[in-house]
Amino acid sequence: MATDSELRERLLRLEDSIAAACRAAGRKRAEVALMAVSKTHPAAAMLAAQELGLALFGENRVQEFAQKSTLLPTDGRAAIAVHLIGHLQSNKAARAVELFDGIDSLDSLPLALRLDSAAAHSGKHLPVLLEIKLSDEPTKTGLMQHTRALDELLERLPDLAHLRVDGLMTIAPLDAGEDETRACFRALRRLRDEISKAHPALNMHELSMGMSGDFALAIAEGSTRIRVGTALFGARPKPQP
Ligand SMILES: *Cc1c(COP(=O)(O)O)cnc(C)c1O
Known about the structure:
binds pyridoxal-5'-phosphate, 241 residues, 9-stranded parallel beta sheet
């Protein structure tokens, strides 16, 4: 795990780059939220980041965060928001609603129905983002744009009273060049504008896009929430074979 001073250093450098990207894009720093992606890093790393003023965290596995959350002080837990950014299986929806403050990877109508009823059960209004897959990578999850599956979900969402739709999320293709990455972020923004027009009842404010390697491009294309892991917490341990 990074020491507190390493983390502080990295955050300062990151903030410099975010500020530079915002300036270059003619945007205000306050328009772009920084989500600290703490997956694979211990709960202590989340606490250290919280000490430095970070309040929004991203985790990609229900089971992993279930364990870590027991190590976070309950009063401190109220001061931070932790969102799920990884694929969620429907059978874990209820557990995810208990654990997370938002689901940024909603990718099907059946999952939306499960989340809505679990949120109703816990008396919550659950913030969600729709995860959109803009490139045809077979391993990737997310809804493809201009599909029946996305249209059906968009039509039903206004009736799901315990879900609060905030916008869209995407992951740029791995190893893509700058032009392809940028085109992907631009496509998400355009889709957001299209959906806003066609479904005025849905809030489409948030565009969660941009990670350690590409957040400057994402900010240039209108990102409102960048998700940064490596540039803050350092390299993640490689998964065991
Ligand atoms: C891991 C992950 C990130 C952070 O990636 P880095 O390159 O380490 O910044 C962002 N978004 C999602 C969905 C992730 O799974």
